[in-house]
Automatic annotation (TrEMBL):
It holds the Pfam family ABC_tran. This is ABC transporter ATP-binding protein. SMART domains: AAA. SUPFAM superfamilies: P-loop containing nucleoside triphosphate hydrolases. It comes from Aquamicrobium soli. InterPro entries: AAA+_ATPase, ABC_AA/LPS_Transport, ABC_transporter-like_ATP-bd, BCA_ABC_TP_C, P-loop_NTPase. GO terms for molecular function: ATP binding. PANTHER family: AMINO ACID ABC TRANSPORTER ATP-BINDING PROTEIN, CONSERVED COMPONENT OF ABC TRANSPORTER FOR NATURAL AMINO ACIDS-RELATED. Residues 8-255 form the ABC transporter domain. Keywords: ATP-binding, Nucleotide-binding, Transport. Gene3D superfamilies: P-loop containing nucleotide triphosphate hydrolases.
Amino acid sequence: QISAEPVLSCRGLTVRFGGLVAVRGVDLDVHGATIHALIGPNGAGKSTLINCLTGFVKASGGETLLAGRPVAGKAAYEVAELGMARTFQNIRLFGGMTVLENVLVGCHRNLERSILDLLFRRAKAAEEEARFIDQARELLAFVGLNGRDGQLAGSLAYGHQRRLEIARALMLAPSVLLLDEPMAGMNVVEKAELAELISQIRADGTAILLVEHDVEIVRSLSDRVTVLHHGEKIADGPPDGIFADARVQSAYLGR
Ligand code: ADP
Ligand code: MG
């Protein structure tokens, strides 16, 4: 069942770009071990909301709480360190690096510590590196990229690049994973496979905020749906009620 305390929440979150209000006073609660879909037409503010929650874009107002603690003013890497991991609407991988190296980049936060810590760690570095590599290989197998460690990321098929990005995010052992249109450009089979993977991540207890346009996928996969329109939240609730809502139908489905 849904835990009482949300893993990730925001209150009155607002993002302005000059005169444009891309996100306007949004309240959101994402609970552990749930898939929370974030939907809305193009330009509704979905990516901006994710960018703001994860510290890539500064809020103009409101606050974000991770496990009940404010994360205001923190840089993206600090937010990641606190347990928020993400993927991007446009894949961001190092195409000239191997699959394994791309996943290991995800754990850089573990190396950004104080000098003392660093000196102490140097002795343990070799041991740690081996542990990270094992962990990375496990995650690659988990996302279905077994045996591709040494391949260049840029040579992977598009759907596999999406999976690699997810493996990299999971390297942070996040309490919440934010996926910005991970299924964009995929065929029906690839989408179904990725949906299965996302369900498995939920089963492991992780909270997932998922931007997805495919209504059938959102219906079958998500526990809760938030609808944005012109930067504002216009509906929030279980998927069945959401798609029956007249405002959602006119705004999002164009009916
Ligand atoms: P969605 O992801 O729902 O399609 P976005 O969050 O990408 O929507 O965009 C919301 C609005 O904010 C759009 O009008 C977009 O043009 C604008 N926008 C997004 N990012 C920026 C930016 N960095 N600077 C200026 N305007 C932006
Ligand atoms: Mg977007």
